[in-house]
Amino acid sequence: MTVSQDGLATGRSEWRWTMTAMLFALFFALLLLSLAVSVTVGRFAVPIDRTLVIIGNSLLNPTAMPETMDERIVWLVRVPRVILAGICGAGLAISGAALQGVFRNPLVSPQVLGISQGAAFGGALAISLGIWGFPLLVLVFLLGLAALAMVGAIARIDGRTQIVTVILSGMVVGALFSAFVSLLQYFADPNSSLPAIVYWLLGSFATATWERVLIAAPGIAIGIVVLWALRFRLNVLSLDEAEARSLGARPDLERWLIFAMVSLVVGAQVAVSGIVGWIGLVIPHACRLIIGHDHRKLMPASAILGAAYLVAIDTLARTLTSAEIPLGVLTAIVGAPVFALLLRQHYSEKGAR
After folding, report:
1. Distance CA 222, CA 224 (A)
2. CA torsion angle for 338, 35, 265, 283 (degrees, to 10)?
3. Residues pairing with 156 in the sheet
4. In whole angstroms, what is the distance from residue 270 CA to residue 122 CA?
5. What DSSP string runs through 167-189?
6. Would you say 173 and 147 are in contact if contact means Cβ atoms under 8 Å apart?
């Protein structure tokens, strides 16, 4: 009995499709599990059935104010915090996947463009000047964009932009804004603004509110949608530049569009929660090992796992101890060993081949 080549190809295609569907089902299950755990656990535990009733009632009657203690905790504290952590995690992870594709390097993260450092300086400056609320968020976002503009101005030489010059320019701009942040910390009042600056720089969703969700969500959502729409172009940009041009790509224009969307996502995230590292580095790399290099699958997988991961980390940050642990500390403690293991496994398999 013989099997045709077309039959074998069809069988392989169906098997790959089935495996991809199963992996995405697993990713969604992890996301739902992290969301369910996050809205129910804490110092004041609320059963999952009661939580679902509270959320359902609040959605059906959005103008009604929560009356009982568990209603206020779930709807006014935990739900906006979980949503904010989820969208920020998704945005950072998909941004990391896009940048790793553009730079053809799995070790690249959103911090490479200096955007996070510029946004951090904006937040530190606002706190030093006693600016809070929406003006602080605006200043953070504008200085994040200013950092990207500086990178673009430095990296463009003779009308062209090379990947190496972008990376080096990002390092220069990031170091410059980090120095500005250190200078602000040096002159800050140690009894008032200095502790606030340090805590904000470490990252936290402790101040999450529905207002902050509405501030961050549009920018992050626009960035995610545009980056996802460019998933086919990212497959082309991952090739050699000459080959990408031969396939009709315009690398310079498309790269800077991606950089602008990453700056939009990172600026919005840093504005509401401070600097949160490692998400854009670890999650895309892990997804690449699990689901492959095709950005059509890698981008949504990174977004889903990034959301689940940051929600889980935020849950640990507020439940492990009586005092909330800064997110930047936990993401580094968890992310660094995991990334080291993934890196060793990746290069061990590569060496074996």
Report:
1. 6
2. 20
3. 161
4. 10
5. HHHHHHHHHHHHHHHHHHHHHS-
6. yes
The reported pTM is 0.89
The one-character DSSP state at 274 is -
What pLDDT is attached to residue 39?
96
> What token pair was written down for 326?
């800064």
Q: Which residue carries 């009632």 as its tokens?
A: 57
Which range (12-16, 173-177, 286-290) has the least confidence?
12-16
pLDDT digits (tens, 9 = 90+) for 280-311: 988 998 898 899 888 999 999 999 999 999 99
Other beta carbons less than 10 A from residue 335's beta carbon: 18
Q: Is 349 left (phi over 0), alpha (psi -120 to 50) or beta?
A: alpha
Per-residue tokens: 181: 């942040």
Helix axes 210-229, 134-155, angle to 10 degrees: 30
Q: Which single residue is written with the structure tokens 């009356």?
A: 67
Q: Taking the mean position of all CA atoms in its chain, how far away is CA 223?
A: 11
Supply the DSSP string of 288-303, one letter for each residue: HHHH-S-HHHHHHHHH
Phi, psi (degrees; rounded to nearest 5) at 161 = -125, 120
How far are the Cα atoms of 1, 8, 9, 13, 16 from residue 5, in angstroms, in the given order? 13, 5, 6, 12, 16
Torsion region of 189: left, alpha or beta (phi above 0 gives left; psi -120 to 50 gives alpha): beta
Evaluate the CA torsion angle 113, 219, 106, 344 in order and state its sign.
Answer: positive
Question: Dihedrals φ, ψ of 247, to 5°?
Answer: -95, 10
Pair 205, 85: CB distance under 8 Å = yes
DSSP alpha helix (H) spans, 203-250: 210-229, 231-237, 241-246
